[in-house]
Design a protein that fits this description.
25% of the residues lie in helices and 26% in strands. The chain is globular, with a radius of gyration of 22 Å. With 399 residues, it is an alpha+beta fold. It starts with 15 loop residues before the first strand and ends with a helix. It folds into two domains: 104 residues, Rieske [2Fe-2S] iron-sulphur domain (Rieske Iron-sulfur Protein), CATH 2.102.10; 217 residues, Naphthalene 1,2-dioxygenase Alpha Subunit, Chain A, domain 1 (Alpha-Beta Complex). The chain is built from ten helices and 23 strands. The strands form six sheets. Strands 13-19-18-17-16-15-14-23-22 form a nine-stranded antiparallel β-sheet. Bound molecules: FE2/S2 (inorganic) cluster and fe (iii) ion. The site of FE2/S2 (inorganic) cluster (FES) has 10 residues, from loops. Its cofactor is Fe cation. This is Rieske 2Fe-2S domain-containing protein. Keywords: 2Fe-2S, Iron, Iron-sulfur, Metal-binding, Oxidoreductase. It comes from Conexibacter stalactiti.
């Protein structure tokens, strides 16, 4: 039960992983510095910020941020949602359009591009360098196929380099509707009392489906009069594959990714995708995983509607989304209970804290462009994630 102080020691050669990666406050704090302050982080989709003045609030790691499109210049900026006076969040709304943000505490105002515009009753200040008191901006913002990313690091790999092999998949996602996709339906949120990485890992964990989602499969079997062969397909289908795309990203392919369609299934892509560290795509859904503490997580689920498609088509995407992931859905709540909260319960037993993440490790084989390929229900995505995580975590030395 001694705490591990070197991140490299959290993993063994044969892919056992130390449970403290999900529970330790020290590891969580180090993650915020190394995993969330180095690589690019997803913050928004362009469809949420179409017009000058549009903004949304979200989080970059644990940091509350405003993503805005400049009212004057149309430029995308990502800024900390924190007043430079005494720290209040200057914007409370999830989305909107505004030329200015006014702090609710003492009324300082900022342009939507971040510059400090007005200080209330400012004659009482001896001297203030107003031009240095704008909202703090993240130094880099980039857009890939409509997905907006930002980085706390002044320098580092370009967004394209970072996304690497994940980039073609993002392009396919961006082309789903006749005129692309839009996130105009907003999001619904779940919160659970366990680590954020559990949600990312569970996004491509085909091994769990027949167990956690057994009741869903039973309902399906009732409806169609026979047991659906889903588990067989998932576990043994040789044409399905999981791929370590590098840089922590991974994908599960269960159709032809080039066509971007999954045999006509509504709003479904023929793959699930994880973009390191906390952006996931499942079916018609974009999933943004927001860490709150070592043992608390918020997840925002955004149905991706099809731009240029009929209202009926998009309404059907929403109903499908709600049917599985909604609060009374047939799937999502089971993941929260079992894959997150029961794991958290089990993790309280720390006497022998090692986990096994080696499923299919012996049959991982090299694919194109430096990728590693495995079977559908292998733990390839988990190992892909932890290769990226370990790289980020070990760069900064001991915990
Ligand atoms: Fe914002 Fe005082 S904290 S004006
Ligand atoms: Fe699940």
């Amino acid at each position: 039960m001694t705490a591990i102080t070197d991140p490299a020691d959290l993993f063994t050669e044969d892919w056992r992983v130390h449970g403290s990666i999900y529970t330790s406050d020290a590891i969580f704090a180090a993650e915020q510095q190394r995993v969330f302050h180095g690589p690019w982080l997803y913050v928004a989709h362009e469809s949420e910020l179409r017009s000058p003045g549009d903004y949304k609030t979200t989080h970059a790691g644990t940091q509350p941020v405003i993503v805005s499109r400049g009212a004057d210049d149309g430029e995308l900026r990502v800024m900390l949602n924190r007043c430079r006076h005494r720290g209040a969040a200057v914007c409370q709304s999830e989305r909107g359009s505004a030329n200015f943000f006014r702090c609710p505490y003492h009324g300082w105002t900022y342009r939507n591009s971040g510059e400090l515009r007005g200080i209330t009753y400012d004659d009482a200040y001896p001297e203030l360098e107003r031009q240095r008191l704008g909202l703090t901006r993240l130094p880099r913002v980039g857009v890939a196929h409509g997905f907006v990313f930002a980085s706390f690091a002044e320098e580092g790999p370009s967004l394209e380099e970072f996304l690497g092999n994940a980039l073609p998949y993002l392009e396919i996602i961006s082309r789903q509707g006749p005129d692309g996709i839009r996130l105009s339906a907003g999001s619904h949120r779940i919160e659970y009392d366990a680590n954020w990485k559990l949600q990312v890992e569970n996004t491509i964990d085909n091994y769990h489906f027949g167990f956690v989602h057994r009741s869903f499969l039973e309902v399906l079997a009732d409806r169609i009069g026979e047991a659906p062969p889903i588990m067989q397909q998932i576990l043994f289908n040789e044409t399905y594959r999981t791929v370590d795309l590098g840089n922590g990203h991974s994908v599960h392919e269960f159709g032809d990714p080039r066509t971007g369609n999954n045999g006509g299934q509504l709003g479904d892509l023929p793959f699930n995708l994880i973009v390191f560290p906390n952006l996931c795509f499942v079916g018609a859904q974009l999933r943004h995983v927001l860490p709150k503490s070592a043992t608390k997580t918020e997840v925002r689920l955004y149905p991706m509607l099809h731009e240029g498609a009929s209202d009926e088509h998009n309404a059907a995407i929403l109903r499908t989304h709600e049917g599985f992931y909604g609060a009374a859905g047939m799937g999502g709540p089971d993941d929260v209970e079992v894959a997150f909260e029961r794991v958290a319960d089990g993790m309280r037993a720390t006497e022998d804290d090692w986990l096994v993440m080696s499923r299919g490790a012996h049959r991982e084989r090299p694919g194109e462009n430096g990728t590693l390929v495995g079977h559908s229900a292998d733990e390839v995505p988990q190992r892909a994630f932890y290769r990226g995580w370990r790289n980020a975590m070990t760069l900064g030395g001991a915990l």
